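Q: Please design a sequence for this.
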């Protein structure tokens, strides 16, 4: 033989564990790092080392492996390899423990209002180190605390806060965050328009400008300069340091203020003058109310208003005539009452005219007399106030056609009993005017009287109603406080209908008649009280009953003990009064019972008594049958109103019996019921066979004939003498042997009978049976 050797190299052994020594270094350290792997390794196995990933940056091979320390934390991977492959890699991490500042510093809020007292929490996250130290003023300045969260009292000015991490390797750089303090808003130093002292329509727009003051230039909330009309905080007309608005048509005050998220400043204001001329505020004359010729001259004065010149005028016809100028003007006293006009003028134009009346005191008749009402109602206590329209005078004189006594008053209040004419005229020191008149009409008061104050009716009835006395009205109307309606509510006599409402207890309604007076008279009304009494509430038992002919039934009503009752018709009733009757009609009859209350209100319940014939029922005699086939039982019929109830709860007229047993049925109608029962025996009939017979022509026992309980069977009978000779046979149950053979009389003695029979039917007739025995023929 020739032989050779096959060398099978093992797979690389798995690495049990790896370690790094030292495991933690600082960035500035200069030390050797030893990477070691443990496990049961085979010859030819080599440990390869990588940084950051398997197959990544190759660090070297060998076990252990010494390398220089890195500047950052590094994950090292070890893989055992040989010519057959490589093992699963294991990892370990070399931590380069450099302190790092926080990556984030977040306060509760970055912006606070000046003077706001609170505690602010600043939370630091990220970075690396064992202790986080907080500083104020600068990094490394005043120590405020340690830990990842710092709580400080809100500063009064914008302040920076610093934090740095330290560990065994040293201290990180600082990170910082600012808490910004928003100052309070300060009013503008000045606000001004681009033009002032304008005339209406001379410019279309004006520009308002604000300078100075302070809003908010620190926070993201922003600032706002708001402009108001007439008052600080009033109607807003715009925002911004410069705004353009429509020019006003009257002198107007504008105000501006700075606003920020923390406060609002006081307002700065300016007045934009619109130089519109206005008439004098006060117009006067040194002498007024004089008689013609008593004064030679008068001085007119107009003060206030707006304008550079004052002009006076009078009206002559359709023309306005200028008579002078100046704040004060002296003119010849007029001989008649005269209106003097005055106005102001400036470069913007003319003001409207104002006026003053200089009265030359001749009395002038009133134009008319006016009154609060042109008529009153007689005897109503109403009063009317009158006054004069127009006219001139020092005093007003009043009198009436029935009373010439003069009454001096600006108004006159009267309450006459009849239509009266009143007069008025003016009086001055210069004389009296002609009078004017006014007639006050007095309207008679309406009268409405109903004599019947109280009445009653039964429910669902109508009530005639009328008013007994009726005078001095414009229109009339019937109304009610309850339900119901009137045939004609606008007639003095009408009919009231309460309506088809169920009244449980007596209801009271007021029937109100109103006579509407002629203006200005009030209405007159009268009332009658109507009591609506209920009909009797009662019930009948039984309602619409049914009975069998030749039987009776008790009918009862239930109601109040005070009710009386009447029954109709009296046919078949034992009485027609009382709360119960015994009814025995021979045929179906309609009745009614009438109940009456103590108030005389009646109601009726109709009812009928249906009379039925007694149902016919006869199941017959008990049956003993040889057949096994089901038997049908018929419960009979009647007038078509019957119902059926068998012992098995069947409700059919016909029932099929398929088992031996006792059976019953009840047949009923609305009036009565009958019951019958029967015994059915299947597959087992009965034969009665005589033991002797005597065919001697005496009419008794003349033939030999077996009797069976089942006459439906198929049947054969054979008669043999004692020698076995067949002497008679038949298949008719109704025939028997008469004691003869071929017409000859057989001798007395013992004979043998043999019966063959079977139940009737095609599906279950039962088994064929035989019966034999002896019969004695007697002569």
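A: Design:
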């Amino acid at each position: 033989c020739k032989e050779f050797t096959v060398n099978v190299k093992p797979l690389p052994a798995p690495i049990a564990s790896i370690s790094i020594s030292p495991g933690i270094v600082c960035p500035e350290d200069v030390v050797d790092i030893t990477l070691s792997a443990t496990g049961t390794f085979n010859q030819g196995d080599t440990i390869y080392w990588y940084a950051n990933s398997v197959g990544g940056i190759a660090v070297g091979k060998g076990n252990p492996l010494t390398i220089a320390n890195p500047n950052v934390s590094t994950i090292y991977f070890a893989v055992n390899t040989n010519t057959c492959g490589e093992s699963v890699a294991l990892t370990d991490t070399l931590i380069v423990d450099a302190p790092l500042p926080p990556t984030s510093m977040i306060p509760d809020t970055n912006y606070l209002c000046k003077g706001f007292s609170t505690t602010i929490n600043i939370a630091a996250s990220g970075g690396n180190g064992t202790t986080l130290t907080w500083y104020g003023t600068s990094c490394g300045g005043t120590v405020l605390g340690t830990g990842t969260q710092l709580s400080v009292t809100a500063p009064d000015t914008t302040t920076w806060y610093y934090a740095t991490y330290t560990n065994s390797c040293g201290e990180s750089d600082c990170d910082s965050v600012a808490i910004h303090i928003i100052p309070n808003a300060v009013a503008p130093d000045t606000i001004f328009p681009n033009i002032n002292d304008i005339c209406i329509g001379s410019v279309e727009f004006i520009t308002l400008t604000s300078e100075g003051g302070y809003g908010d230039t620190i926070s993201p909330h922003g600032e706002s300069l708001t402009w108001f009309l007439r008052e600080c905080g009033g109607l807003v007309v715009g925002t911004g340091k410069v705004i353009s608005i429509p020019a006003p048509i009257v002198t107007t005050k504008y105000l501006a203020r700075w606003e920020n998220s923390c406060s609002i400043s006081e307002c700065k204001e300016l007045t934009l003058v619109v130089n519109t001329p206005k008439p004098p505020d006060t117009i006067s004359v040194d002498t007024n109310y004089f008689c013609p010729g008593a004064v030679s001259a008068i001085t007119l004065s107009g003060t206030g208003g707006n304008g550079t010149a004052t002009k006076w005028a009078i009206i002559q016809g359709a023309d306005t005539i200028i008579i002078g100028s100046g704040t004060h003007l002296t003119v010849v006293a007029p001989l008649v009452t005269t209106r003097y006009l005055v106005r102001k003028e400036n470069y913007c134009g003319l003001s409207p005219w104002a006026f003053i009346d200089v009265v030359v005191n001749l009395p002038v008749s009133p134009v008319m007399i006016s009154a609060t009402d042109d008529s009153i109602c007689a005897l109503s206590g109403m009063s009317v106030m009158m006054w004069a329209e127009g006219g001139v005078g020092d005093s007003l004189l009043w009198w009436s056609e029935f009373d010439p006594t003069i009454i001096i008053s600006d108004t006159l209040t009267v309450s006459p009993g009849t239509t009266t004419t009143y007069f008025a005229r003016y009086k001055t020191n210069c004389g009296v005017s002609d009078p004017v008149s006014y007639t006050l009409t007095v309207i008679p008061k309406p009268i409405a009287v109903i004599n019947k104050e109280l009445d009653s009716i039964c429910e669902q009835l109508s009530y005639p109603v009328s008013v007994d006395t009726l005078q001095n009205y414009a229109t009339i109307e019937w109304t009610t406080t309850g339900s119901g309606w009137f045939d004609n509510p606008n007639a003095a006599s009408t009919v009231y209908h309460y309506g088809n409402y169920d009244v449980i207890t007596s209801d009271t309604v007021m029937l109100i008649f109103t006579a509407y007076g002629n203006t200005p008279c009030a209405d007159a009304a009268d009332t009658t009280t109507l009591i609506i009494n209920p009909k009797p509430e009662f019930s009948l038992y039984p309602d619409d009953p049914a009975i069998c002919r030749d039987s009776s039934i008790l009918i009862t009503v239930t109601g109040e003990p005070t009710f009386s009752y009447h029954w109709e018709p009296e046919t078949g009733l034992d009485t027609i009064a009382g709360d119960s009757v015994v009814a025995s009609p021979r045929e179906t009859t309609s009745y009614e019972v009438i109940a009456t209350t103590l108030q005389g209100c009646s109601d009726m319940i109709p009812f009928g008594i249906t009379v039925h014939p007694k149902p016919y029922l006869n199941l017959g005699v008990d049956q003993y049958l040889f057949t096994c086939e089901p038997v049908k039982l018929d419960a009979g019929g009647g007038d078509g109103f019957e119902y059926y109830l068998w012992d098995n709860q069947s409700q059919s007229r016909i029932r099929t019996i398929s088992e031996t047993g006792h059976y019953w049925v009840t047949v009923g109608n609305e009036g009565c019921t009958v019951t019958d029962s029967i015994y059915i025996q299947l597959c087992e009939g009965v034969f009665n066979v005589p033991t002797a017979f005597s065919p001697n022509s005496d009419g008794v026992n003349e033939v030999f004939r077996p009797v069976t309980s089942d006459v439906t069977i198929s049947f054969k009978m054979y008669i043999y003498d004692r020698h076995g000779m067949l002497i008679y046979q038949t298949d008719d149950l109704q025939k028997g042997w008469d004691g003869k053979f071929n017409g000859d009389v057989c001798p007395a003695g013992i004979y043998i009978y043999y019966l063959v029979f079977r139940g009737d039917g095609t599906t279950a007739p039962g088994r064929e049976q035989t019966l034999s025995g002896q019969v004695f023929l007697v002569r």
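Q: Thanks. Anything notable?
A: The first strand starts at residue 17 and ends at 21. The chain has a mean pLDDT of 92.
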